[in-house]
Give the backbone structure.
Amino acid sequence: MLTYEFVQRALLVSTVTAVTAGLLSCWLVLIGWSLMGDAVSHAVLPGVVISYIVGWPFAIGALIAALIAVALVGTVGERTTLKGDTAIGVVFTALFALGLVLVSVTPAGTNLQEILFGNLLGISRDALVQVLLFGAIALVVMLVLRRNITVWAFDPAHARAVGVPTGLIRGAVMVCLALVVVAAMQAVGVILVVAMLITPGATAYLLTRRINRMLVIAPLVAWVSSVAGITLSYRYDVSAGGTIVLFQAGLFVLAYLFAPREGLVTAPLLKRRRRSRHPLPTLPDAAPADAGTSTPRS
């Protein structure tokens, strides 16, 4: 399998996507931006269709649409009293609906279907260059700002108090989100991008409470799932993107069942062991009221 060039390209693309999406997913889970990842991944659809119509590379239109979506969400959230999830829901549904309308009036093309559902084993060299470029930019930004992003993710008020430019960090995370979405959609398609952005971080969160370990476990989960998905897709002729996401979901289920602290199976066993090692002290039986004394009778 590894002797074929298209498999080598698929492994390279999946590795870049796994590392960048896995790192970003840790902070998205901590911040509570799962819906933001879903919004940006769907909001790129109109940009992709417009790029297809005018003959541009898909990545250009997708990146422009993602940045517009991020800017609109930030503007609506800051200039109104609406909550963040409401602003996200309004913006991403509107942009996704616009994409559906554009698709309905555009002659059907295989390329659009590949963008929607992914075609990892058929990725072109141009798409490979785009993934490497966007993934490298996002990776460099996240590594340079990782400490500030972590502080802001845990406690924005404390981050402002210690001098972290929270506005700049928020904007940098959103730009990284747009870049990772554009890179990941080349691998698994627009519809399944959100799984790449959430599942690895959620799995790592169940396995550890230390951010440094999360930043290692999440990319590892994403990469193992990508390699396994490509292998299964090659052997059984099934969707590579769908197989990757299903494998990630399987790893999440294992973590949900057998995680050391929160596992559905292991957590009760751990509690029982702790109780057996450190049993609660038992109080002595209460002595009878007349033991050792006699009350005089009147």
Summary: Residues 291-295 have pLDDT under 50 and may be disordered.
